[in-house]
Design goal:
single chain, 212 residues, mainly alpha, two-stranded antiparallel sheet, 6 helices, 61% helix, rod-shaped
């Protein structure tokens, strides 16, 4: 039988609609509860009514339908989450590919100088200010020399888009030859003194390195 209206024992409330198994016969109007947490307690029949099996079956059917709809909605949500994760990964891959495509190829010594500044938490603005102020130091000197070769924009791009090492497999002598050839190829034929000074810097740096 089920509870018609909520009633209270000293230690708990029995809610409306709660189903109780009770003894089948009574002459006093009181029946004993046969199972559950209230087993052996008595309840007056006025608090109880016969279970409407038709309504119970309908309620069960509705509950099952609701559960099915909830499961279907959860499945759709999971599918949407998986789709969003795939889309997010695709977009991240595209961003990574775009960054790789925009990476600046730098000579090893320039890349190592930028590595030093980035590891120290120094940003592009600070590096450019130090260049303008003609600050001293091994790494800033490398950057200044690279910028004097017309590569200031490459330094700025390298901070933003990242960079790779140019010809990482060649030795220092081969790198020197490439640097000199690059200077010669970029020379416009007018500022010969500037070209000589740049080549002189490259040679000076090279002989300093091989002498240490």
């Amino acid at each position: 039988m089920q509870v018609k209206e909520a009633f209270q024992y000293p230690d708990r409330v029995v809610e409306k609609g709660e189903i109780l198994g009770v003894e089948s016969e009574s002459t006093s109007g009181l029946v004993f509860i046969l199972d559950g947490a209230l087993k052996c307690r008595s309840v007056h029949l006025s608090h109880l009514e016969e279970i409407d099996l038709g309504k119970l079956v309908e309620d069960l059917r509705v509950a099952q339908d609701d559960e099915k709809r909830a499961v279907a909605a959860a499945d759709r949500l999971e599918d949407n989450v998986i789709q969003l994760q795939r889309e997010n990964k695709r977009l991240m891959d595209e961003v990574d590919e775009a960054r790789k495509a925009n990476k600046v190829m730098l000579p090893r010594e320039v890349a190592e100088a930028l590595d030093f500044f980035k590891n120290e938490g120094v940003d592009a603005d600070a590096v450019m200010r130090w260049v303008e102020c003609n600050a001293d130091g091994k790494n800033i000197d490398i950057i200044k020399r690279f910028i004097r070769h017309g590569k200031g924009y490459d330094i700025a791009r390298a901070f933003v888009n990242g960079y790779t090492v140019e010809h990482p497999e060649i030795d220092r002598e081969q790198q020197l030859r490439l640097d000199v050839r690059q200077l010669m190829d970029s020379w416009d034929g007018r500022r010969k003194r500037e070209l000589v000074e740049n080549v002189d810097e490259l040679l000076t740096d090279y002989f300093k390195e091989i002498s240490t």
